[in-house]
Input
Amino acid sequence: MTEVEVVVAHQERATLRVGDVFLKIDADQARIDVEVEAMALAPIPTPEVLWRKPPVLAIAAVPGTALGRLGEPLTASPAAWAAAGAAVRKLHDAPLPPWPGRSRDEIATELDVECAWLVGNEVLPTDLVTRNQRIAEAALRPWTPAFIHGDLQLCHVFVADDDVTGVIDWSEAAQGDALFDLAILTLGHEEHLGDVIAGYGGDVDPDVIRAWWSLRSLTAIRWLVEHGFDPSAPGCEVDVLKAQR
Output
């Protein structure tokens, strides 16, 4: 008998797996619209859309295994990480999607709000937040917009035999900073940053990627806590902030 697996579930959305089919349930149809259109536009492997009946989107499983998960030991080879970097470069070189992403001003405002919340609620020590906010500000320089995935966690990149077989979860795709994608992909795994950059090619500033590590971690913690995740688990966002210098 085929079992139903709950992949992720929180107040905003849920994803179930039934055999080789994923059912994504999302009350925000705009988010699903973005996901479907982004997968159609992306020049890299994405899941096949099987059917859509709001609020449910059914997609086929992609072959291979995830590159890894934040906070867990990794087994993927350096070549697989380089292949991920090459796939991201292909995406970033593609024509822009027709919808905009968040502006630098919007991101800067979110950073200020979340840092104030972290300090005001004594979630993290003030000096840790202040140091990382200062580091994060380097990410808010002018950038040339690229077609970004927008949530390129390593668990969203699937590989087999050191090749990328699929990239999933495109609901945050938009125009944005290319280095943001590289930062999310390598968050918590600085040891593979060189592999990703080697596959990506071109002129990449590692300091800006590190700045995005701080910014992403600072702005994600409240959401993670409120949706039942633990950013203080070993190797996760709080540890990323502590490692930043």
Remarks:
- The CA atoms of residues 186 and 192 lie 7 Å apart.
